[in-house]
């Protein structure tokens, strides 16, 4: 996937029966409030990720940092999942969610490195022209991260579970931002 000064990031397909315990700890942590699974049981988490694993247009991956579980990544086709009827998808649109594992020892820049690795993975597919996200309008921290990697907010939308900020990041914008960051780090 990618290597950074923080370490190496890779992903593997999520295995719901094997990974449910780990994910349950992550999604029920207070820092994961915007994931909207605070009261989920272990069985709820396993059932949700089995549902995703069976879906033709939605995929979940366990993200590893130097070989250790560190984040969750989901990609989906917005023509069929999450954004159906809420905007006009274009060819090459890919939806994305990500969640960084809670930690007692935060590393400065880690979450930005994760979203950069996620975006690099999504754009590794030549068919991906732009990435679409729809975070909660109140999630200011993720809005700042999204902007840092090249997302441009389009408008607020009403989803059944939240008021969301529909945002897009084109391949060109991501790689422009990514090279700016790399140039800044080497200066």
| Major β-sheet annotation | 8 strands, mixed
The tally of helices reads 5
SSE string: EEHHEEEHEHEEH
Measured by DSSP, the beta-strand proportion falls in 25-35%
Averaged pLDDT, please? 92
What is Rg? 16 Å
Helix fraction by DSSP (H/I, runs of at least 4): 25-40%
Structural class: alpha+beta
| Shape designation | globular
Strand elements, count: 8
Low-pLDDT ranges: 182-187
Spatial separation of the terminal alpha carbons: 25 Å
In what order do the strands lie side by side in the largest sheet?
1-2-3-4-5-6-8-7
Pfam family, one: Acetyltransf_8
Keywords: Acyltransferase, Transferase
Organism: Streptomyces heliomycini
Pathway: Siderophore biosynthesis; mycobactin biosynthesis
Word description of this protein:
Helix content is 35%, strand content 29%. The protein has 187 residues and is α+β, with helices and mostly antiparallel strands. It has an eight-stranded mixed β-sheet, with helices on both faces. β7 and β8 (163-170) form a beta hairpin.
What topology emerges from the helices and strands here?
Layout: E1 2-4, E2 7-13, H1 16-27, H2 42-54, E3 58-65, E4 68-76, E5 93-100, H3 110-123, E6 130-133, H4 140-149, E7 152-158, E8 163-170, H5 171-186
Parallel strand pairs: 5-6
Antiparallel strand pairs: 1-2, 2-3, 3-4, 4-5, 6-8, 7-8
């Amino acid at each position: 996937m990618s290597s950074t000064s923080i370490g190496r990031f890779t992903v593997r397909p999520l295995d719901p029966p094997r990974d449910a315990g780990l994910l349950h700890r992550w999604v029920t942590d207070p820092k994961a409030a915007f994931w909207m699974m605070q009261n989920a049981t272990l069985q709820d988490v396993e059932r949700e990720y089995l549902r995703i694993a069976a879906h033709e247009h939605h995929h979940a991956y366990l993200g590893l940092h130097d070989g250790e579980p560190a984040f969750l990544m989901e990609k989906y086709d917005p023509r069929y999942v999450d954004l159906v009827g809420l905007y006009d998808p274009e060819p090459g649109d890919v939806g994305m969610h990500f969640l960084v594992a809670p930690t007692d020892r935060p590393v400065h820049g880690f979450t930005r490195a994760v979203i950069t690795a996620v975006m690099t993975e999504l754009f590794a597919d030549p068919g991906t022209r732009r990435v679409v996200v729809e975070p909660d309008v109140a999630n200011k921290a993720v809005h700042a991260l999204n902007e840092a990697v090249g997302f441009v907010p389009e408008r607020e939308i009403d989803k059944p579970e939240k008021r969301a900020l529909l945002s897009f990041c084109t391949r060109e914008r991501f790689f422009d931002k990514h090279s700016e960051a790399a140039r800044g780090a080497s200066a």
